[in-house]
Amino acid sequence: MQLARIYPYAAIKFMSFEQIRKFLIPTPDKNTNFRHFLSGAGAGVLSVFMTYPFDMIRTRMAFETPKSGTSKAHIKDFIKSIYNESASSIKILNFYRGFFLSVVGMVPYGGVSFLAHNYFGTVARTKFAQYTINNQPPPQPKTQNSLHRKPKKKLVLRAWAELTIGGLSGICAQTFSYPFELVRRQLQVSGTYSPNSSVKVSTIVKNIYSSLGVKGFFLGLSIGYIKVLPMFAISFYTYEKLKELFDLD
């Protein structure tokens, strides 16, 4: 189920980011941090909307299987169980429990990740270019034909630099959005113990705060870092290399 979700999620996220960025940043003078943040946030929200039911089913499977003490439950059983819950009169909305909170959390998650990736990439290509940039061919002499050449492409980073930048971007995104993710997960699994009613976000927030205080909203963040660091490093590295391969910059 994770693979069924991550393929369309990543494809939609990176594709929509490029399209939204082209719309919001049509020229270099429009390239601001805020517009870059909006591009990432919009891409994140769109990808979540398209793949949220997969995430809902995956979360429920991970929660209910250990609870039931069996691993024989089939995915179709979880789909039926979620669909037949009476928390919403519109059955399909059962697959979108916690969706609004997920969107709220995805705005900083998607926005910060792409903004941080752009920022760290710019720093690496300017202040630390001698360490991070692959060897480039010597500059060509200017001729009359130079006016017809394609715009200069951005400098290609070395693999370790690209991976590091991607990992740092993931850490930044996870830090800013983790409280929303924590509450969303609890909202998603609320159907297992309250299938006939809709649990309020405020109730979950109060329970977390009354039990552990503010630090309760960051419980498990270190494990989140272990997850997102390689995930973002590899995904952004692959994203940049595929753009380079297909000449999409």
Automatic annotation (TrEMBL):
How does the UniProt record describe the way this protein sits in the membrane?
Multi-pass membrane protein
List the InterPro entries hit by this protein, alphabetically: MCP (IPR002067), MCP_dom_sf (IPR023395), MCP_transmembrane (IPR018108)
Q: PROSITE patterns per the record?
A: SOLCAR
Q: Which UniProt keywords apply?
A: Membrane, Mitochondrion, Repeat, Transmembrane, Transmembrane helix, Transport
Where does it sit, as one GO cellular component term?
Answer: mitochondrial membrane
**Residue spans of the Solcar repeats:** 31-123, 157-245
Transmembrane domains' residue ranges: 34-54, 217-239
Coiled-coil stretches are: none
Q: For this entry, list what GO says about its biological process.
A: transmembrane transport
- Keyword match Cell membrane: no
Q: Does the keyword Ubl conjugation feature in the UniProt annotation?
A: no
Q: What is its main location?
A: mitochondrion
State its location(s): Mitochondrion membrane
Q: Name one Pfam family in it.
A: Mito_carr
Q: Which family does it belong to?
A: Belongs to the mitochondrial carrier (TC 2.A.29) family.
Q: What is this protein called?
A: Mitochondrial carrier protein LEU5
**Taxonomy of the source species:** Eukaryota, Fungi, Fungi incertae sedis, Zoopagomycota, Kickxellomycotina
